[in-house]
Amino acid sequence: MEFTTGGRLEVRISPADVGKRVSVRRLNDPGGGPQKFTDTVGVLASWTGGVVRITRKTGEVVRIAENTLVAGKVIPSLPGARPGSPPARRRGPAADALEIDRIAARSWPPAERARLAPAGTDPDAGLASGSGWELRAAGGFTRRANSVFPLSDPGLPLDEALRRVRAWYAERGLPAYIHVSEGATAEQDALAGELARRGWTNEGTAEVWTSALAPLADRDPAPFPAGDTPTPSAHETGGAPGATEPRGELSRTLSDAWLARYQRFGTPAPESLAVLSGGPSVWFATVWAGQEAAAIGRCVVDGRWAGFAAVEVAPEHRRRGLATAVMAALSRAALAEGASAAYLQVEADNARAHALYDGLGFRPHHPYHYFRAPRDDAR
């Protein structure tokens, strides 16, 4: 915290700051005894009825009595920076959270979608319009493709919008999730607090990390072929993967070996294949060990952005630099298409992945949460 005992403590926030990131200090026991304080950093979700609600980066909602506040201020938002964290060693590409979220949503498209939006907006505009809520479903394959993306006002009172969301997912036999990013929009920041008040629970926190693309492409891509032009896979040319040394290949299509290495499902459903194959410009990387995939990865190029996902290495082939090689090869393909920035999404508690991506130059940009509807009948 930046409050100091030598300076004057002031509450410099008000209900007008709902949706902004703030830091506050409150008195634990106003009734007497030694004065003890608690500091809280997060998004000011609401300020009503004498109660201040702040959503922390973990998704936890902290309720603070207004009369216990002794200090408070707004924290300016900086891409790639977190309150209370040391300055990043290298700043990533300049972008706001909503820009990256929209790019990421296009790279992981659902099999089915619907939209809640204000009257008069194009019902088919979707992500391009930047308005409304997009409801996404893909047979339950990943929460990313089976959750609501709240871009802006849904055009309905919140309780009615939530009722329609729950009914839509119930018709498909799926739980209702809403994806809420911190710092994307003031509406999303406030939505987190409103969902918590209505009994929606945070069932998963992940983070978006970003990096410049060129340093990734400059890394040694071996065992992928050298050169500026990515080579098609053996499955496209009719050849057979080498049986001796590991050999890396890039492809525009999914192979059975790639799917066998991917750990998110057993037998892939059509909805899963649609998600994995969807996106503006999709690349798949495979490192072959005989007839099996020792390592895999996926990259989607969309304008200046290259989005990485599904980077996995077989346990017996770990600590050989294969994950780095996969990302280097995919980066070269994306760079050749004109991309200059990279992003990925990683679970907040995946320490092994954090270590890998930190070593590759990625830095945290913003967290996001999946709020799940109360477990009872949709209404």
Automatic annotation (TrEMBL):
UniProt cross-references to PROSITE patterns, sorted A to Z: GNAT
Transferase is among the record's keywords: yes
Domain N-acetyltransferase residue range list: 245-379
Any GO molecular function: acyltransferase activity, transferring groups other than amino-acyl groups
Alphabetical keyword list: Transferase
InterPro entries tied to this protein: Acyl_CoA_acyltransferase, GNAT_dom, Rv0428c-like_C, SH3_Rv0428c
Region named Disordered: 217-250
Any Pfam family the entry gives: Rv0428c_C
PANTHER family from the UniProt entry: L-2,4-DIAMINOBUTYRIC ACID ACETYLTRANSFERASE, N-ACETYLTRANSFERASE
Name by which UniProt lists this protein: GNAT family N-acetyltransferase
Naturally occurring in which organism (per UniProt): Streptomyces buecherae
Organism phylogeny: Bacteria, Bacillati, Actinomycetota, Actinomycetes, Kitasatosporales
